[in-house]
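Reopening this ticket.

The earlier resolution said the output was attached, but the attachment link was broken on my side. Pasting everything inline this time so it's all in one place.
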Amino acid sequence: MSDTITTSTGNIFDGITAHSVVTPRLRAGVLERPATGTAAATVVFVHGNVSSSLFWQPLMLALPTSVRALAIDLRGFGSSETLPVDATRGLADYSDDIAAVLTELGVDGAHLVGWSMGGGVTMQLLLDHPGLAASLTLVAPVSPYGFGGTGGADGHRLSVDDAGTGAGGANPDFVARLHDGDHGADQTSPRTVYQTTYVKPPFSSDHDEIWIDSMLTTATGVGNYPGDSTVSENWPGFAPGDSGVLNTMSPGHFNTSGIVDLAEKPAILWIHGSDDVIVSDTSFFDLNYLGQLGVIPGWPGAEVAPPQPMIQQTRAVLGAYQAAGGTLTELELADCGHSPHLEHPAEFLAALLAQLER
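Inline output:
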């Protein structure tokens, strides 16, 4: 069931409608830029961690009017229902939610676009819901081997308990500021995190206040962001728990390298920025890299806790996907951080339109 809702936030752009879609799994918030007449294609946008569908609006409006554009809020973000996340399923709670929304809307053969954690969600969709995707565009995606705690291009796990990954690595002050709806500009505020890590400084846009509002829709707590953690005998002393957002991407819970073996391989477009500090071979959110820099004391060394080569891992898996018969296009954008769709919208749109025509 889909009902049009009226928003008073002022964060919905002209030409886009907000819906509430009720499925057997959850009530989901969905933004839509409808096609004119019968849609020639449907593009479905999936946001990343600590964000929402609001971030996709400029791109949705830039698409040809023959395209139906949908952006879905994940559980615990945006206007979707806040439900706990079972991290032992990796990102499958989110991908199953997306599939349920698309079923309710009668959409199949959609062109999926996933940003950061949303890229992992869309890769999980390929594995669990074959035939749903006509194509897949990965935007600065999480590595197919998860976030942190793996080594080498093969993504091997560094410890049996994935020490140093998951919710224990979240900054508690940042979590508190999300909870409190902080619009300030202190060092650990959502605003500063956006300005210094989501984009490459000094990038700014006319919509930055909306992007901050989007981040502040994040539901906090054990079942949502960041989740729970456990004590570990391995450095840095904690390991992921079984619930919440950050634990979904721990390597023991998440691995989508199996897309290489899919019988049906939708074309993949991989877009990422050369100066991304979140998803990178030298990520400032990878505790092993911070340990190597001396930011976190007691680092046991590169033989035990090397930084995760996230880009190398993604390139290896997508290269194997191509070698196994899939179509792959990679676009690395210079002078670009973690948000190519915001920072280089013209190049991003051109690449996405070419993807829709494949």
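Reporter confirms the inline version is readable. The chain has a mean pLDDT of 96. The CA atoms of residues 278 and 285 lie 6 Å apart.
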